[in-house]
Inverse folding.
């Protein structure tokens, strides 16, 4: 057998495996396959990962992050980026807490510009009112939506780069939240609100239940309010992108903004609407975090929160160049990112090392997106 024939034979033998790997790589479910494989792999080395209590805790971390990532998905789909999501979460958290807190400490919050008007020792403007939580939630949602719409307006009207405009919004609203609260947390929120962060709709018990303490420790939430809220938000976002004219406009703007404008797509209004949706989703995340932590916190979206939000969205397969992405992909990306964070914590790595690994994973996801795009383009030729 000649060397050329031998090479051809080896190529034919390797072709099925190569086609299988390529099919997996280009599959819409690639990140889901990766998440399952990663989970099964690390569970061998960290058995505690599969314990019911740990799984429950990790799912609790999924829902607020997913809510914010859904909003970021809309922005990335039009080839933009929103750096102000974390600041929007913090500002919305503070705005809602000012409305519904039942008491405030003058020593901590006496220097607030709102002290004596909207905030006092007896609480906020609707302290102890039956509708305080509902009104506060509405205020948080409206605040988030207006912040996003403001950024979208400047981006669309003055053609400012989304990176620059949302960076300015991040600096302004994060500083405003810290100034309003004097870097303090606003606590004493009503139970009707905090239950949104910890309330269980369906729970099961496992293990011993001999005493109330053991019984409480052995409770395993199956369905929670954050799960229902974020799942509902994801379903609405999915339907908006896949079943409406607006959704088609979003993808069209992301694929080619100039061509979309020529085709009659109201590009400016789409941009404003997309950033308003991102702000609304950030406010939902702020509500869930505030309820879970039982306080309005100006820094609730600080630290590595922005890295986690953008990272989870990119890992899910939403392209940074716009026009490609799905809400379902984002939800799977959030699951992978939370699982990755949990694994890194089990490795007892420092916060600096964890962020370094997360950054490397996000870079790998971006490079993988480039590879997938090139493979698809090659197949189309």
């Amino acid at each position: 057998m000649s060397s050329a024939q031998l090479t051809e034979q080896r190529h034919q033998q390797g072709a099925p495996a190569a086609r299988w790997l390529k099919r997996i790589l280009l599959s819409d479910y690639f990140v889901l396959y990766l998440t399952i494989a990663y989970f099964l792999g690390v569970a061998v080395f960290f058995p505690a990962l599969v314990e019911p209590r740990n799984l429950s805790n990790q799912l609790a971390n999924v829902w607020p992050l997913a809510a914010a990532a859904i909003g970021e998905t809309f922005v990335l789909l039009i080839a933009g980026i929103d750096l102000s999501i974390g600041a929007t979460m913090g500002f919305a958290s503070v705005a809602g807490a000012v409305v519904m807190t039942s008491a405030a400490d003058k020593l901590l919050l006496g220097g607030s510009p709102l002290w004596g008007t909207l905030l006092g020792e007896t609480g906020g403007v609707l302290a102890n009112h039956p509708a305080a939580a509902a009104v506060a939630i509405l205020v948080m949602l409206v605040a988030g939506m207006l912040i996003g719409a403001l950024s979208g307006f400047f981006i669309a009207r003055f053609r400012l780069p989304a990176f620059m405009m949302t960076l300015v919004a991040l600096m302004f609203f994060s500083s405003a939240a810290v100034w309003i609260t004097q870097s303090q947390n606003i606590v004493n929120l009503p139970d009707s609100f905090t239950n949104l962060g910890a309330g269980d709709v369906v729970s099961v018990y496992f293990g011993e239940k001999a005493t109330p303490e053991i019984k409480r420790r052995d409770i395993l939430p199956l369905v929670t309010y954050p799960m229902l809220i974020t799942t509902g938000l994801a379903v609405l976002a999915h339907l908006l992108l896949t079943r409406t004219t607006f959704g088609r406009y979003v993808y069209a703007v992301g694929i080619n903004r100039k061509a979309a404008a020529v085709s009659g797509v109201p590009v400016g209004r789409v941009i404003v609407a997309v950033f308003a949706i991102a702000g609304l989703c950030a406010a939902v995340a702020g509500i869930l975090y505030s309820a879970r932590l039982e306080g309005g916190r100006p820094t609730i979206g600080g630290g590595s929160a922005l890295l986690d939000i953008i990272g989870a969205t990119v890992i899910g397969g939403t392209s940074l160049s716009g026009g490609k992405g799905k809400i379902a992909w984002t939800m799977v990306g959030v699951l992978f990112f939370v699982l990755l964070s949990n694994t890194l914590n089990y490795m007892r790595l420092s916060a600096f090392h964890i962020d370094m690994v997360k950054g490397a994973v996000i870079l790998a996801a971006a490079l993988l997106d480039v590879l997938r795009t090139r493979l698809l383009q090659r197949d189309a030729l």
